[in-house]
Design goal:
The chain folds into three domains: about 60 residues, Immunoglobulin-like (Sandwich); about 100 residues, Alpha-Beta Plaits; about 45 residues. Helix content is about 40%, strand content about 25%. The radius of gyration is 44 Å and the shape is elongated.
Length: about 250
């Protein structure tokens, strides 16, 4: 709008189409997603721009948004310690600061918080911002390169965002959680542990049984040896005069 003052200050709104899946920044006109996860296809939005003059003038246009079922693996999440409503109003400035400090073309794909209810959008002091960067050849910059650059330039980025929000800002790149092992691998690991435990227990039982058999086998062998020695030398164990009694018995027989 070429007018100045209130006549040139525009306010944007969604007035028709599939508005449940999208929302719009009333000050900048930036459209962002609300609930298109898992969806694909083309969405039609009727957007209105209105000035703030005494005789309010409006204009409308149709915006077609195509959602691809595939998603880029180079999207990076940046966490700001600011309310989502504030970040949404300053999204253009946030994008500008990131482009200046990173040296790439940066696009803000999504702004959201842990608060899901619209009436709680201003209650959380932590906002997630999904961004993607493109180099001069219009190629996606790998996510790891973007994360590394964000960490290297964190101090400069926070200083630039502090001027945007007029308050101290923390800009953090969260570490991705370790990927959970697939169920098949988990089951295989558990089965392997159980099998190993069973094998160890069985081996211990066999060794213990073998040791027990050797012990009792030696005892039986000692008993057998004692018996055999007693047979070969019938007088060897005679300690109570039985030899004399035998001799006497022979004398009497003679």
């Amino acid at each position: 709008d070429p007018d100045s003052g209130d006549n040139g200050r525009l306010q944007y709104s969604l007035v028709g189409g599939q508005t449940n899946e999208f929302d719009i920044n009333e000050n900048t006109g930036q459209i962002f997603t609300v609930s298109v996860a898992g969806k694909a296809g083309t969405f039609y939005l009727q957007v209105q721009a209105a000035d703030q003059g005494t005789r309010r003038l409006t204009a409308q246009t149709t915006v077609n948004v195509t959602v691809d079922s595939s998603s880029s693996s180079n999207v990076v999440m940046l966490v700001l310690n600011q309310k989502i409503s504030v970040v949404e109003r300053k999204s253009v400035e946030v994008q500008r600061v990131l482009e200046e400090k990173l040296g790439w073309n940066v696009y803000v794909l999504n702004i959201y918080s842990k608060e899901s209810e619209r009436n709680s959008r201003s209650s959380s002091d932590e906002t997630q911002v999904d961004i993607i960067a493109f180099d001069e050849a219009h190629q996606e910059v790998p996510a790891e390169d973007v994360k590394r650059k964000l960490r290297e330039q964190r101090a400069a980025i926070e200083l630039g965002l502090q001027e945007v929000f007029s308050a101290p800002v923390s800009a953090a790149v969260p570490e991705a959680p370790a990927a959970a092992a697939p169920p098949e691998r988990t089951a295989a690991i558990v089965l392997g542990v159980l099998l190993a435990t069973t094998s160890i227990a069985f081996l211990a039982y066999v060794l213990l049984d073998l040791k027990r058999k050797r012990k009792y086998g030696k005892q039986d062998l000692v008993k057998k040896v004692d018996v055999m020695e007693g047979i070969d030398n019938p007088w060897a164990d005679d300690k109570n005069g039985s030899l004399k009694s035998l001799e006497k018995s022979e004398h009497m027989n003679n």
